[in-house]
Amino acid sequence: MAQFFVEETVIAEQEVGEEKPDIFYRAAQWCLLILAALLPVWFLPTTTSPVILNKVFFVSILTMVAALCYLAHAILRGRATIPFHYAWIAFLAALLVWVVSALLSPQVITSFFGVGGEVTTVSALVVFGVLAFMISALFGTPKDYARLMVALGIGFALFLLSVLFFALGGGRLLGGIFTDESFNTIGSWRSVALVLGFYVLLAYPFLLRATGRVRSVLAALFIAGLLGLIVVNVPITWGIVGFFAIMFLSYAIWQRVISGALLVVSLLLLVISLFGFFSQDIISAATPVVAPLEVNISHQATLGLLKSALGENLLLGHGPATFVYLWDRLKPLEINQLPFWNTRFAVGSSLLLTIPTEVGVLGALAFLTFLALVWLASLRAAMMNNEQWLFGLSAFVVLSYIMLVWALYPVGYTLVALGFIAIGFGLAVLRVTGLAPTYELVLFREGPSGFIASLFLVFLMILGAGGVYLSSTRYAGQVAFARGLDMFNREGNIESAETILQSAIRFDSRNSAYARSLSQLYVVRARNVAQANAAPRELLGSQFADVLDRAIRAGQDAIRASSLDFENYQSLGKVYEFLIPLGAEGAMQAAVTQYEEGLKRAPKNPSLFRDQALAYFAEAVRTNNTALLGKAETALQKSLELKPNYTDAHFLLAQIYDSEGNAPEAIRRSEAAALLAPNDIGALFQLGLLYYKANRLPDAEVVLKRAVANNTNYSNARYFLGLMYDRTNRRTEAIEEFEKIAALNPGNSEVQAILSNLRAGRPALSSIVPPPEERKSPPVDEN
């Protein structure tokens, strides 16, 4: 049977060489050419994440439309051309494991579709697989392959222009988040360097053999890419590029294609890579753009998480796109001592370490087998001594680069999409070099086989159309969600924001963030209704009850959409906590129950114990029940066991000590804690706050200064130190403290108001109510 198809393919390819591709075939090619050219620069200010969410929609739609056009082309021809390689068997095996793992996951919908820019969901794997397959099917001739390379070159040029545009401050023309010079169309700053490395290595082989204008264009892109790498200045990229410069030179000597140009370019690439890797400080001082701080998980932490996850489910893991929930539950306790302790990570230290954590050993083995087979095939193509060896070399180099990046770095959506484009043209080059067979599937045969083929074709078209529909509705939900948030945050229009958020949920009820945000919006509405003293009492009561009922229902909807996300339980707990001062029966217990559910999913998160303490404290204040103060204190002690320097917990603990009416005992306890841990900024802050409230201002100054000395960015310690200066008539020093706080916390309106008061000769807290020492949370949010 296989021999029959091979013979049929030879005849078909001869016929195709004579026939003109129809409009659907050309449309499919153009979809992928547009994707290749615009992928690195595509973004729109329509969603909460202008870059990633728009790229997901862009890639998904163009890939699915290309597949539908290719199916239409096959119907018109009466047969479908199927490029075959054994790697696709491994890919289908990986996809099967992904599906089974997703079905067994407690987050089935999330594992299949995700909620944003996840790269490990079932749907993402399908889109990436279809993308690679369509490239191999549509660009399997030297002419078509060259067109794809031109499209990638255009993408390279556009990306360089975009980096230059934003680095020179062009984003100010767009406003908003685009004004930052480090804004880019990839995502993270380090990813910009890795994408530049991808394009530099893609251009390198062609530069060595090109002539005339083509060589000039490639040389300009190559040099501009190296300059871009210098500006972005990321060590990992220099190391990888330098490694491949050595490989290039070794390959050329081995293949006996060494020339003066090759030697010069290879040595130039190697020297620049070494300079970039070992001269970080020099480059940083000379470049105009300050690289933003990026936070990633270490390989050690990821391996620890991987070990724990595989210990629970070795073969199939916990489900695709569940790494963030595993992180919440299993993260190392030491993370809580770091400044970014509450950052949630959707991927580990690298993509290839994230995959086994989510889909187990079976999924990882199948996916790695797929990558290995594609890599070996591209290596064969690179070693051929025919006129297409250059295509094979370019595919092999870029595939090797992208796999190394996937193994070392937590890549985002763009680098994964570029990786599957590389896989696609790595398989396409097998057709160009004649290393892979192409089968022809005849669609319109007599008998059952023809009917089955037609039925299968219709099934694929339904899947493609369904993919377009799901991608479109999800994107519509993302756009509506961004509009709803903008309507509330910028215009303060609660009614319009509510309507738009409800439409976002109708478009995509799978995203728990929509329902969670709607619940929080209802709480704001309830607070406004309660403060509307002019309204009739009966109407006020009915409106209030209705809005709160909606808030609770929306919070419950969020939990149903994502039962593993502790933030959904925390958000619903806040709704019940809002009811405690109003005397609602059972509100405190309902809030505590939600926080306990959250702790089951994030047992090392100190904020959940702090929230429990807030609920106990609010009920204790309302009922004058001192026993509840003890429960609140116990919850805060648990919070501080998880994070000893947790300012929020220390602040609330000082409030509880004060509420117990025994300030001397509270100070004695805090002095003992500070003595045991003299460098613990949390204990120092708590003691300084108690001194401040007891009007022991000289003692407060000493302790708060020590806290600031241990952490110069400790805004809350500076806040009360500044208030202490104001109360002791040292206005100049107070202004200096609050100016430092303003620099650390741009956009904090209260700090700006205090500075205005001080500069006008008024008390710092003039017109600011309630005073910070009477609040339940620190005045400056340092989370």
UniProtKB/TrEMBL annotation:
TM annotation in the entry: 23-44, 56-76, 88-109, 121-141, 148-168, 188-207, 214-232, 238-254, 261-278, 359-377, 389-409, 415-439, 451-470
Region spans: Disordered: 764-783
Coiled-coil ranges (or none): none
Keywords: Membrane, Repeat, TPR repeat, Transmembrane, Transmembrane helix
Superkingdom of the source species: Bacteria
Pfam annotation, one family: TPR_16
Keyword Protein biosynthesis annotated: no
Biased composition annotated in UniProt, kind: Basic and acidic residues: 772-783
Spans of repeat TPR: 715-748
PANTHER family listed in its UniProt record: LIPOPOLYSACCHARIDE ASSEMBLY PROTEIN B (PTHR45586:SF1), TPR REPEAT-CONTAINING PROTEIN PA4667 (PTHR45586)
The protein, known as: Uncharacterized protein
